[in-house]
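Following up on my earlier thread - several people asked me to post the actual chain instead of describing it. Fair enough. Here it is, all 631 residues.
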Amino acid sequence: MGFVRMTLVSLAVLAGATSAQNANLKRQVSQLRPSYDFVVVGGGTCGLTVADRLTAALPAKNVLVIEYGDVHFAPGLFDPPTLWITPNPDYAPSWDFLALPNPDMANRSASIQVGQTVGGSSAVNGMFFDRGSHLDYDAWTEVSGPDWSWKSLFPYFKKSVTFTPPPPAVAQQYNYTWDISAYGGTGPIYSSWANFQWADQPVLDKSFRELGIRPRTECAGGDKEGICWVPASQHPVTARRSHAGLGHYADVQPRANYDLLVKHQVVRVVYPRGPKSGPPLVEVRSLVDNHLFNVTVSKEVIISAGAFHTPTVLQRSGIGPSSFLGTAGIPVVLDLPGVGSNLQDHVGPPVTWNYTKPYEFWPLPSQMRNTTFKDEATAAFNDPVAHGPYTMAGGNNAIYVSLPHVTAQYKDITKKIRRMATDGTAASYLPPDIRSNTEMIAGYKQQLLVLANLLENSESPSLESPWASSEPIALVWAFLLHPLSRGTVRLNLTDHLAMPILDYRSGSNPVDFDIHLAHLRFLRGVLDTPTMKQHGAVETGPGAAVAADDAALRNYTKEQSFLSFLHPCCTAAMLPKPKGGVVGPDLKVHGAKRLRVVDISILPFLPSAHLSSTAYAVAEKASDIIIGDWH
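Reply from S.P.:
Thanks for posting it. Predicted structure:
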């Protein structure tokens, strides 16, 4: 069977997976087995990866995945009939969260989307498929232990993905560069570059080089400070989105020991004889008729419900901060204050400008408003080998710049971080309900010291700014890659089964603003480069007057920051229990027998990357750990 045909078949399998012919897709309790060896809570990026690997390696063991959503077609970010980064009517379902108003960000609220479908957020994300710096993952080992270093994770990054270089003519046309040694795997998730870029993509590339940022041949091999080409999680021939619902579910069915139960919510895990007598029962609610039932497990339960829903399941189970559980009226099974704490996300403000001289490039995103151009682009995308504008997935470029390369005052910033970690003030920046908890304070202090070292390293990115075009809106974002502020995820006290309450608390640690201001002032420099002057770039925000005044620039940051770049993490952190941890390096929940967490909630702090690629690597490594325990 040919490469293109295989891909079209796998897409058809997912689209048709709701049919009764798929015996492994379950919709009601009567279709389930009497018991399961493993239950995976959540059919998203990590949950499906784990289920795939366990069912393949342990054919005599059966696995049940329980997913809140259903099977849906998941188009790419820029598939027809979109124009340019606009909503697609075929978009897979998602939860739309609105966090509490943030007093440190002008009382504005973060808006966050999370996938509510088989495939989870890998089915709805921006498809930007980068990896963090090796220094990020090595820094995890300083707070979590040596098992999760870059050296240990790199093979799993490679294992998780099949990377396809562009054809030579396309590579030459767009100056793509790569190092195949950073890849080399044959994983079920595809990554590639589009055979198209907007005509003004080189404008910012050239401007950033003139600003002194060095281009990198490859940024997926662990060295990431500079200008990077970033692949997308899409198939190299069809340009369709590649996600866990395809690679780790549809493409491996039928598999006799792999069941998927959709349209059901895991309410909690239950330890009838206490948390030392696991594995627990899994209490499940049907979303169709609200029927409650228990699933019996013989080996272990793996929670993979994501940064928001994993802590929610744990809290409903009586595993979490005892003070909050008491407020919620839930009996305490395990007092783990880190459950739902340590919330982080990438945030940041933009630098904006207008062009005052003729800007004659073709084609540009505004061409998508031309009916003829759009129709031709759609036809090109639907060819057996897709080509043209719709093969774009948003963008394939970003700069990653360290704090020492951003500002000469970087040591003043890291000195502030170290001071608060040692003078007793760090606790005052934690969420109020854990501010006096000795475990959470100890863990936060250690994170601050590790992050200060990371920020002081000239090879460790502090700033990210992705781009694809300077049109129709001319701006560059200033992502804060390593925020110091910490938020919370807590059960809704009026309805424990409803979406949880998010308190992002961005900017609650004031040093984050010192870094934001440094990032903005650095990025403004791009407008003084010869290329930008050639095109008559005139700054519209923040502007010279605002940038010259700390208070004014801080207010600009509060009012203009994008409060979530959709990278929430770290709410069931892999840390020692005395440091506020929820899981250990083996991802077992502290004090809970045969209960693990495998998703991005286990990250101790954010890497310098969008999280999809890291999620797959974490799940691949976790799968090997679990298989090793049960083989």
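The longest strand covers residues 264-270. That should answer part of your original question.
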